[in-house]
Design a protein that fits this description.
Layout lengths: L5 H9 L4 H34 L4 H8 L3 H8 L7 H10 L15
Length: 107
């Protein structure tokens, strides 16, 4: 039995979309890319600070009372850490969790 590649199926479906649907899909895609980029930045910053402190993921996890697998997922930009988890990780790293305005945000 022959299989049909996903890209072909998706392309066939997309070819039937009107402009409003295309525009909505483009906006949703951009929002998803923005969110994923933010999660990846958070993870990279966590890993950078952990390395600067000379800690392994396991050591950080133990200090913060979280699972090492959670630290790994966060550092890879995966998962969805709670505020409490992020605060515990920051505390364990001797850091503070802060929010900063993005450079691309109009005031």
């Amino acid at each position: 039995m022959a299989t049909t590649p996903y890209r072909r199926i998706a392309g066939d479906v997309r070819s039937e979309w009107d402009q409003d649907v295309r525009d909505a899909a483009a906006r949703a895609g951009e929002e998803l890319r923005t969110r994923l980029a933010a999660e990846q930045r958070l993870g990279a910053e966590l890993a950078e600070l952990r390395h600067a402190r000379g800690l392994s993921q396991s050591a950080l996890a133990e200090r913060a009372s979280v699972q090492q697998a959670d630290v790994s997922r966060i550092e890879r930009g995966l998962g969805n850490p709670t505020r409490d988890t992020l605060v515990r990780l920051a505390d364990a790293l001797g850091a503070r969790l802060t929010l900063e305005p993005r450079a691309d945000t109009a005031e």
